[in-house]
Amino acid sequence: MVGEINMKKYILNSFIAATILFAASCKPEIETPAGTSAGQANFSKYIAVGNSLTAGFADGGLYLDGQKVAYPNLLAAQMSTVGGGAFTSPFFADAQANGSGYLNLSALVNGSPTLTPVAGNAFRQGSSVFLTKYSGEVQNLGIPGMRVDLAFAAPYSAANPYFERLLTDTQVGTTTYFQFIQGRNHSFFSLWLGNNDALGWATNGGVTSDATNVLTDKATFSMLYSNLINALTAGGQKGVVGTIPDVTAVPYFNTVTVSALLAAAKAINPAAVAVFIQTGAGVRAATSEDLIRLPFQSAGLFGTGAIPYGLDPRNPIANNWVLDKDEIIRVKDYVNSYNSSIKSLANSKGLAVADTYTYLNMVKAGIAIQGININSAFITGGAFSLDGVHLTPRGNAVIANVFIDAINSKYSSTIPTIDITKYRGVKFPDK
Amino acid sequence: MRKLLLSLLLSAPLWVLGQGFQVNLQGQKQIGMAGAGSALALDEASVFFNPGAVTFLEKNSISAGVNPLLFKSAFKQNGSNITENVKNKIAPPFEAYAVWGPKSNKWKLGLGVYTPFGGLVDWGNDWSGRYALTSLNLKAIYFQPTLSVKITDRIGIGAGFVYNHGDVNLQRALPVNYPDGRSGHATLEGTGSGYGWNAGLYINTLSNVTFAVVHKSKVVTKLEGGTATFDVPESLRSSFPAGNTFNAELPLPSTTTLGIGIPLSKSTTLAFDASWVQWRIYKELAFDYAVNTPALADTKSARNYRDGSSFKLGVNHKASEKVSLRAGVGYAFSPVQDGYVTPEAPDANRYILSAGIGYAPTSRFEVNASFFFEDVQSRKQKNIETGLDGTFKTLVYAPGLSLTYKW
């Protein structure tokens, strides 16, 4: 009997001990090195050099919500756990949050989007182009429209409202972007520039009409890019450069298809035989290898007129609406050349390379990331915003992770990756 | 006969003990022994563990028990520094048994109601894998009337018919955003049923070493007319019609168990069970929607489970007339292959540890308690279908209690 009481006591004590042990060891632990080390890099002052993608341009405009989720801003937030410092951006004030204005998806009618412009509210008085000036330190140096060639052209600082906005009156028209990005005492940089050197020409249908749609000469590109890299690494700084995506990887060129246009035409006039386009080599029937620009959908031209526009060789779709198959071959060749320059220059300086060219080609085919299917379909693909070129917040998070992976693998740092599921795709109307 | 059985045991393939959605909590005494005990005529839970042993139970009895189960799973995305945990939700696996037969007769009847499969995971609506899964609540309740017959004084056979009532609620976020940025949400809910059987052979050799061969059949559970609710922005409503329903099928696997019971002394018995769970039937999780749209096709998610297996060793020690002590260890091989680990069953090979105690104040009443612990090994995975990429780690805690009345 005594034995039994002792036994009960023993069992009771064992249960209490087990309960304490349980409470202490209850939560499963997963150890990882993420967020512990900057490796060979120093993230204390990061600057981001680039174009609209760096600035956070989205939905056809630069506005506050887009600026906040620009990939450099997401990247800088992640760097903070491995010694990254503050990161300043030329945000629009809350009262001018609509910035330059942007597009809103206001309805889906039988699957067709209705895009409604939201007016900008950051314009300077008396102007519908130039924006309220921003003064003060900036580390996000992204300028929508910036190109490698125009980074060395002082007059462009007066013509580009996003650049003009950041300059003093004396700098306007006299300072180049190349000068603007220097003297900022950075310890780390990202450089994702050059997209517009090809895209400007492509989004004008392979037609050059001014300095923003020139297809930059390959050797010029290489020389100027090397100047940029030399300036940014002048103090021995480390950094990451981004390759230039294939221009045909974006919804801008893959949404309005020749077959869809022809089907729409046939629905109205069964006699329609082909879509006719003006190319550099003359007028011909379009094939699936010719890409029509996204805005053609809402341009209200197709099929109009006594000789139906685009449906008769006498009234073809104008050259600037179409990136025809010869132009595609040309622009792809230029992008490949730019990218081999970028990679070899980066390698010679020991810089990390974020290969967005390869990554966005994967997105074009469709990938599943953390339970989300992402592809380059317009609106439903999730990665590209309503202008068909720039990224959604989700697309920015995905690209920021491409940069993080490149930096971590080059410099043995452990910048934690971004949870892309915290970032939205296109907003769908709830009515 | 004994020789025959031994050779059968020796020629058995390498057993793999499958887990997945399997819940190994079917009898308080056996739980205390890590789930071993198919070769012991220990109590009325033999209805589940080995219908062939039921006829060797000395008394008629009725019992009921519950094992509140805490499934503590954690996830860390590849490259992330944030660990996310499932919410504390307590699943209630339970078991109830009754065994009756005329005294000194050759047969007994039994009835078992138990929960051999299930899952309760709630990762919440904000976790990083929410587009793969936010929560799963899966319950399978088996009802099993059983007949057990003594063929000789040392050999018993038994079989039971199994009816399964299944209940599932599966939820995930949809990667479409409302104007305020929040995500859409899908809820699939339904009940279903399936049928199967459970049969066993029990042999008590002259040395009182006991053997068991038990086969529990697969139970293909069909869900028909479940409700599929999609919360999406109104502009997408035509793609995700309201009031939609779905059919689905969840194949619950068959299990073959070989057991040995070895009396070490008058008061101490060792039990060893090796089980082979034929999870390979779980090829895919398919949802067939009543209304399909271009955005809502029927889904077929590959699961491609392989067979699983487990090895469990338990000891039962009668410390006194009234007190019994139990302990067990086990190891189970996961049926989930690399690339197919999902947050609804973040499975991996696991260790099992258990302890139990029984107290019988009178010859009629008995109280049994157990504590069951599983350490599911950490597993870094990228799911082939969803791209969910990270490390899962799970610990399972299940204290339990049952009451028995015997006559």
Describe the protein.
- The complex is a heterodimer of chains A (about 425) and B (about 400).
- Chain A has about 425 residues and is of the alpha/beta class.
- Chain A has 2 domains: about 350 residues, 3-Layer(aba) Sandwich (Rossmann fold); about 60 residues, no CATH class.
- Chain A is about 35% helix and about 10% strand.
- Chain A contains 13 helices and 12 strands.
- Chain A has a 4-stranded parallel β-sheet, sandwiched between helices. In chain A, strands 2-3 form a two-stranded antiparallel ribbon. Chain A has a two-stranded antiparallel sheet with strand order 6-7.
- In chain A, helix 8 packs antiparallel against helix 11 and helix 9 packs parallel to helix 11.
- In chain A, about 50% of the residues are buried.
- Chain B is mostly beta strands and about 400 residues long.
- In chain B, about 5% of the residues lie in helices and about 55% in strands.
- In chain B, strands 1-5-6-7-8-9-10-13-14-17-18-19-20-21 form a 14-stranded antiparallel barrel.
- In chain B, a hairpin with a 5-residue loop joins strand 8 and strand 9.
- The N terminus of chain B is likely disordered.
- Classes of the chains: A alpha/beta (about 425), B mainly beta (about 400).
- At the A-B interface, helix 1, strand 11 and helix 13 of A face strand 2, strand 8 and strand 21 of B.
Overview features:
heterodimer, A: 431 residues, alpha/beta, Rossmann fold, 4-stranded parallel beta sheet, 13 helices, B: 407 residues, mainly beta, 3 helices, 4% helix, 57% strand
